[in-house]
Amino acid sequence: MGGYMIEDDWENSSPITLVLVGRTGNGKSATGNSIVGSKKFESKRSCSGVTTTSKLKTTVLADGRVVNVIDTPGLFDSSIDFEFIGKEIVSCIDLARDGIHAVLVVFSVCNRFSEEEKSAISSLLTLFGRKIYDYIIVVFTGGDELEEEGKTLEDFLCGCQETLKETLRLCGNRYLLFDNKTKDETKRAIQVQNLLSIVNNVALNNGGRPYTNEMYTEFKKCKRESEEDEQDKQFKRIFEMVYGMQDSVTCF
């Protein structure tokens, strides 16, 4: 079925591009399906993950706006090597031709927040630069589980470990809860509306500018220059140390 009717301040002519990242089993692909309003991403219970490469799916909202959703492999999995993650990040940015309006980091209320996930959040800083934190929104899945227990997301967060609270603070405390199993179309639409409302705030806070390939390229350039500068400093220190030792020997 088609997209939902969403009301906010976005221009109808401006596509919205969202990127999903998270650990296998957290409901990343199911969240993508909830956003686009149909089962466009393969989603099933699997310990190895069903998304093997970054994929883009598009939906048109009832008001005519275009939403692009990019689903990525389980980049937060401990079994994934850093080189593969780097290649997928580049692929992801290539897919997001108009830039990334928000990075949706998917956690599950059913799974304990792991050290791997904490490290993965930090790795986003390494891969994208600190600016990427301004675009992160945390999506918690498992809304149906909390509902069955008679709990709210705030109840869950009150009892969660400090490392998760710290991660949320790093991401500007932008988070919301998704129930990807609900058959209630009104509830599904409200979830998406709440998400896009936060995306709209992210855009406003960033001056309406998405995270672009140019920003990524500039960050990589600055990082490379910084590393080269540090190497030069190290060579200089070694050079001075060696020649200092030679001068000491000459004095004898």
TrEMBL record:
Swiss-Prot/TrEMBL keywords: GTP-binding, Hydrolase, Nucleotide-binding
UniProt domain AIG1-type G: residue ranges: 13-220
Highest taxon, organism lineage: Eukaryota
Signal peptide positions on this chain: none
InterPro entries: G_AIG1, GIMA/IAN/Toc, P-loop_NTPase
Coiled coil regions, renumbered to chain: none
Gene Ontology molecular-function annotations: GTP binding; hydrolase activity
Family from the record: Belongs to the TRAFAC class TrmE-Era-EngA-EngB-Septin-like GTPase superfamily. AIG1/Toc34/Toc159-like paraseptin GTPase family. IAN subfamily.
Alphabetical list of PANTHER family matching this protein: GTP-BINDING PROTEIN A, GTPASE, IMAP FAMILY MEMBER-RELATED
UniProt protein name: P-loop containing nucleoside triphosphate hydrolase
Organism the protein comes from: Artemisia annua
